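Late entry, written up from scratch paper. The run itself happened at the end of the previous shift, but nothing got recorded in the book at the time, so transcribing now.
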Amino acid sequence: MPTRKSAPDAGRLDRVIAEDRRARAAREKGYREQALKLYPWVCGRCAREFTHANLQLLEVHHRDGNHDNNPPDGSNWELLCTYCHEAEHRRYLDSAGRDGEAAGSSKESQATHRPFENLGALLKRKHERD
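Output as recorded:
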């Protein structure tokens, strides 16, 4: 007679997920509060300044990508605004798999289009026409 698999305990799964979320939130709150005490409330990319009124838009970015690496001196953290933090992670994801390189590799892509390369000559011609 074939054995029958029992259905997974949905309540247990919900409890495990809820506990994981609580632990993650507590961990994030801990290092976020530490980072806010260590660093000025300024985005490390765009230099936007923050106050208590908009502090929720300032996030902690882990330089090595490991959210469990939280040294008390803050050496793995930088404060980024929500927009720059998203852009940093997008840049990392976009570079994944490019040219067989791993995401976050030290090889930087070079821009090939230089829109302002001949700006001086263009402005000079425009000025001569006017």
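The two ends are 94 Å apart (CA to CA).
(Scratch paper discarded after transcription.)
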